[in-house]
UniProtKB/TrEMBL annotation, chain A:
UniProt-listed Pfam families: Peptidase_U32 (PF01136)
Binding site for [4Fe-4S] cluster: 46, 181, 194, 198
Protein name per its UniProtKB record: Ubiquinone biosynthesis protein UbiV
GO biological process terms, semicolon-separated: proteolysis; ubiquinone biosynthetic process
Cofactor: [4Fe-4S] cluster
InterPro entries xrefs: Peptidase_U32, RNA/ubiquinone_mod_enzymes, UbiV
HAMAP family assigned to the protein according to its UniProt record, in alphabetical order: UbiV
Protein keywords: 4Fe-4S, Hydrolase, Iron, Iron-sulfur, Metal-binding, Protease, Ubiquinone biosynthesis
Protein function: Required for O(2)-independent ubiquinone (coenzyme Q) biosynthesis. Together with UbiU, is essential for the C6-hydroxylation reaction in the oxygen-independent ubiquinone biosynthesis pathway.
GO molecular function: 4 iron, 4 sulfur cluster binding; metal ion binding; peptidase activity
Pathway: Cofactor biosynthesis; ubiquinone biosynthesis
Subunit structure: Forms a heterodimer with UbiU.
From TrEMBL, chain B:
Record lineage: Bacteria, Pseudomonadati, Pseudomonadota, Alphaproteobacteria, Rhodobacterales
PANTHER family named among the record's database cross-references: PEPTIDASE U32 FAMILY (PTHR30217), UBIQUINONE BIOSYNTHESIS PROTEIN UBIU (PTHR30217:SF3)
Pathway this chain belongs to: Cofactor biosynthesis; ubiquinone biosynthesis
GO BP, sorted A to Z: proteolysis; ubiquinone biosynthetic process
Signal peptide, first to last residue: none
One annotated GO molecular function: peptidase activity
Keyword Magnesium annotated: no
Role of this protein: Required for O(2)-independent ubiquinone (coenzyme Q) biosynthesis. Together with UbiV, is essential for the C6-hydroxylation reaction in the oxygen-independent ubiquinone biosynthesis pathway.
Annotated protein name in UniProt: Ubiquinone biosynthesis protein UbiU
Subunit structure and binding partners: Forms a heterodimer with UbiV.
InterPro entries linked to this entry: Peptidase_U32, RNA/ubiquinone_mod_enzymes, UbiU
């Protein structure tokens, strides 16, 4: 595989409600050790958690930027309540192009000032990407469920318009969001009196079928895949197809190691098969999947050796 | 008081005529392909059937709304554009859209046709709704089923377009247009293919102990005792296990129908312009029963009479029903 120093490796926004200590330690290590170019921060899933994140945010941003990483602030995926509307409007007012918008409310607030389009914005096709570019988008993250064939066409269109284009290559997929909190529900509570029980599940709350087959993960109002997406074998194809940024989602595994594995493959410094073994070791028992990319059921793992 | 139009499902030409005859103010339907969110086998319209349907509906003063409410994957946008061109040529009264690229195309190419924002666009705040109104000239928003009535009332004061809400039928749990659960298990996408828990992947399996399990693409979605009626395996209505609970439970929602018949006067008072009945996959007789009952109730309320809602409650007899998020935010 060709050596590629241009492709940027990013860390997506933390989806889970980790304790303040855990979060600070995590990002300190990411700042100092992970070969990542860009890091997305901010609460995307639940506005009730946002105050916890905001308290540490300045220190974490400072630490990451000092380590030479670009920081992008991501907005809430769901905007309904007054506090969610205000949080979105406040973010949109920031005087930096490095904000990622995940809800049309944010697009309204941002007007045509430059911004990034997040994975919850449903940028499925070249027409929509073209529309968004005309409204100030400088970068777009494609939906995780988009098949590779469509991804290539979307990426080519985005590049043609001068946009950065990104897709998730590692971690649990976001499969759904709701107004209802399923973490609270699992504990017989409602969203308003949840007592932040989601903090107990640092990698999501596992759901199994009645015959004990792991199927989904609950993360507050979000439903995630049981499997981790792993597009390590597809990175060569993604880059050839025009993706400029590859996104890793923070999971409860050694993310420094995960980032190093992806970086080494991008740099042509490690054989993809050997890298796959290292990633396997870093992730323990977790099952990997790449079905969405191959236009098949998302949970599936399709054997794939694509010559580039 | 708002007009409280009744928007009724038309999965087939026969269901469309039935809904029109039963008193629908408007019917909504789609083509036989991925351009709409009920892309099920045996449903929907050919262009010829739609032409006849528009003629039938218009002759009786009923509007026809064409659902183009899925998200084209890159490379396939033309299918959605062609569907819009055909709909415009046949004289549909509005397009129901979700994708910004599709909305932009219609706003530029067919500016004479009204645009309605589908529930699939997940616009749940005044800002999101205004984004679509100001950019694409959207005239009506179909609100996600996650808002309380006071929240709807508030939104109404802050947006320049009409509001349509679901009042009856399937109770969607997840934010529509943001759900890949079906694609995760089956390889068919709700957003791109218009498919949710497709029948082709459904299987019912009788176990040795007489119980029945309902499966989707080989995953057990629910399990029923010998005396229980087995439900359809919709992922967000299934029973699952988790570590800290002894028994399998409905992790998202029970199999339950939305029925807002008791809330109709409040919804009208909150400024809702149109009531939507879900169910393009339903039979003609279902459509006839539901549409007739709601027609009478809405007419009674408009005329200042007490609506007799007994008939409406009876429509879901034997099926659990809910007022969902509309009644209380405790639902969340």
């Amino acid at each position: 595989m060709a050596v590629d120093k241009m492709t940027k490796l990013t860390l997506g926004p933390l989806a889970y409600h980790w304790s303040s200590d855990r979060r600070r330690d995590f990002y300190a290590r990411i700042a100092d050790e992970a070969p990542l170019d860009e890091v997305y921060l901010g609460e995307v899933i639940c506005s009730k958690r946002a105050p916890f994140q905001e308290a540490d945010l300045p220190a974490i941003i400072e630490r990451l930027e000092r380590a030479g990483k670009t920081v992008i602030l991501s907005s809430l995926a769901e905007v309904m309540l007054k506090r969610e509307r205000k949080a979105t409007a406040d973010l949109a007012e920031l005087d930096t192009p490095e904000i990622e918008i995940n809800n049309a409310a944010g697009l309204f607030d941002r007007s045509s000032r430059p911004h990034r389009i997040g994975p919850f914005m449903n940028a499925y096709n070249e027409a929509t990407i073209g529309w968004m570019a005309g409204k100030g988008a400088t970068h777009v993250t494609l939906p995780t469920e988009l098949p590779g064939e469509a991804m290539a066409i979307a990426a080519s269109a985005a590049r043609g318009l001068g946009l950065g284009v990104e897709v998730q290559v590692f971690g649990r997929a976001s499969l759904a969001v709701s107004a209802r909190c399923y973490h609270a529900r699992a504990h017989g509570r409602t969203k308003d009196n949840c007592l932040f029980v989601c903090e107990d599940d640092a990698d999501g709350m596992p759901l199994c079928t009645t015959d004990d087959r792991p199927i989904l993960r609950v993360n507050g109002i979000q439903t995630q895949s049981e499997t981790y997406i792993n597009l390590l074998p597809e990175t060569g194809r993604l880059i050839a197809d025009g993706l400029t940024h590859l996104r890793l989602m923070p999971q409860s595994v050694d993310m420094v190691e995960v980032a190093s594995v992806f970086r080494s493959v991008l740099d042509g410094a490690r054989d993809p098969l050997e890298a796959e073994t290292a990633l396997r070791e870093a992730c323990g028992e977790v099952r990997f999947s790449n079905g969405f990319y191959h236009g098949q059921a998302g949970y599936r793992r399709i054997a794939n050796v694509v010559p580039v | 008081m708002s007009l409280a139009e009744l928007i009724c499902p038309a999965g087939t030409p026969a269901a469309l005529r039935t809904a029109v005859d039963a008193g629908a103010d408007a019917v909504y339907c789609g083509f036989q392909d991925a351009t709409n969110a009920r892309n099920f086998p045996g449903l929907n319209f050919t262009p010829e059937e739609l032409a006849a349907a528009v003629a039938y509906a218009h002759a009786r003063g009923t509007k026809v709304l064409l659902a183009l409410n899925t998200y084209p994957p890159a490379g396939k946008v033309d299918l959605w554009r062609q569907a819009a061109d055909i709909g415009a040529r046949l004289g549909v009264d509005a397009f129901i859209v979700a994708d910004m690229g599709v909305a932009d195309y219609i706003a530029r190419t067919h500016p004479q046709v009204r645009l309605h924002l589908s529930v699939q666009a997940a616009a749940s705040s005044p800002e999101a709704i205004r984004y679509y109104c100001e950019n694409f000239g959207v005239k009506r928003v179909v609100l996600p089923r996650i808002l309380t009535i006071p929240e709807i009332r508030q939104i109404r004061t802050e947006i320049p377009c009409e509001i349509e809400t679901f009042i009856f039928g399937n109770h969607g749990l997840m934010v529509e247009g943001r759900c890949s659960l079906t694609n995760y298990l089956t390889g068919q996408s709700t957003n791109m293919d218009g498919v949710c828990s497709p029948a082709s992947d459904v299987e019912y399996r009788r176990e040795a102990d007489g119980s029945m399990s309902s499966q989707l693409a080989g995953f057990t979605i629910d399990c029923f005792g010998p005396e229980e009626k087995a439900g359809y395996p919709t992922i967000c209505k299934g029973r699952y296990r988790t570590d800290h609970r002894e028994d399998a439970y409905y992790a998202f929602e029970e199999p339950i129908s939305l029925n807002l018949s008791r809330l109709l006067p409040e919804l009208i008072d909150a400024g809702v312009h149109a009531f939507k009945i879900e169910g393009r996959q339903r039979s003609k007789s279902y459509v006839r029963g539901v549409v007739s009952a709601f027609r009478k109730a809405v007419d009674d309320i408009r005329a200042g009479r007490q609506a007799d809602i007994a008939d409406l409650v009876a429509l879901t007899e034997g099926q659990k029903q809910t007022q969902g998020a509309f009644e209380t935010k405790k639902w969340r």
